[in-house]
Amino acid sequence: MSLIIRPLSPFGAEVIGLDLDDEQALDVSTQQALRAAWVEHGILLFRNALHSEAAHLRLSRVFGEPQPAAVKRINDANNPYLMNLTQRAGDASGETFTLFEVDGQRRTGWLGWHWDQAFTAEIVRGALLRMITPARVDGRTGFIDAAAAHSRLSPAMQQRIEGLEVVYHFTGAQEQNRFGFPSSLRVVERNPQADAALQRYRGEFPPVVHPLVITQHETGRKVLKLSPMHARAILGMEASASDALLHELAEHLVDARHAYFHTWQADDAIVWDNWRSLHSATGVPFDVDRLAQRTTIVGDYKLGRYLDPARNGQPPQRRLDD
Ligand SMILES: [Fe+2]
User: Residue 260, Cβ neighbours under 10 Å: how many?
Assistant: First the structure.
């Protein structure tokens, strides 16, 4: 069976016709076709396709070298390249456990729109998520194309934001994110240890700066490179004007009418381009299990820096999972 790339609506594409259990399936031409499809479509879905850690790692390497998961508490005990994303029914013991209420629904594992590691100077290339135990209720992952979002801006706004830069600072507590987050978001319960842990992480990640617009180098397309999570201000802009612009851009960017939300089945996998797309998680009710594993794909787009110039040139910070 030959490889079929079928677009998803409104974003991404599904790859059909690959037997990823077969160690020989990823020959040179197949790898080239997958990388080209990734550039074109931003995210690639493989349904019921990854049945083992070995297959997961093989597919990851098509898109780049895997990077060891950096947060030991969620590393797989046997393989540092695998990050365990675990929701255990009724378990509130996780270090950063938080039960949110959002749009009237209680959810653990809820995550607002973001690209990974916006609070660090180096931005990884992508990630490949494989579902092991799908949630019996919800547990979807959403994806938005930030290149399409840029193309939907008015020409005047495109001109206005060209060359601007955004300051990011780690915000562990999601309810403190100010732009593009639902106003209904509130915390129902949080692990008492979480505040201390989040404060510690905050100290480990000093503010960084990223461009608001980047160019996808393979295609020349502009990307609205804003992560609503952790965004603080437009660099050098007066506070009220900065707030107004970030609110407007974030609302434009996270418009769910332009998002693809994946409802997971076991052994589904999605690889996302972290330079061009945003993702979010709808979370699950407290009494629902969900287990996924993720590889992170090495890379740095080399456009980020520390806000404090004295820090630039120093060794990179350690990384966190999002
Ligand atoms: Fe993430």
Answer: 22
pLDDT at 300: 87
Q: 265 lies in a domain?
A: yes
Count CB atoms within 10 A of the CB of residue 232.
19
Quote the ligand 1 centre to 39 CA distance (angstroms).
19
> Looking at the domain assignment, is residue 96 inside a domain?
yes
Distance 26 CA to ligand 1 centre (A): 26
Residue 77 is predicted with a pLDDT of 76
The total number of structural domains in the chain stands at 1
Contact 320, 208 (CB under 8 A): no
Residue 2 Cα, ligand 1 centroid: separation in angstroms? 32
Whether residue 322 is contained in a domain is answered as no
Residue 193 and residue 93 in contact, taking contact as beta carbons nearer than 8 Å: no
Cα distance between residue 54 and residue 28, in whole Å: 18
Q: How far is ligand 1, taken at its centre, from the CA of residue 1, in Å?
A: 33
Q: Classify residue 316: in a domain, yes or no.
A: no
* CA 116 / ligand 1 centre spacing (Å): 5
CA–centroid distance, residue 254 to ligand 1 (Å): 15
**Single-letter residue type at 161:** I
CATH number at residue 78: 3.60.130.10
Domain that holds residue 144: 4-311
Q: How far is the CA of 70 from the centre of ligand 1 (A)?
A: 14
- Give me ligand 1 centre to Cα 174, in Å: 13
Given a cut of 50, the residues of the chain with pLDDT beneath it are none
Tens-place pLDDT, residues 136-173: 999 999 999 999 999 999 999 999 999 999 999 998 78
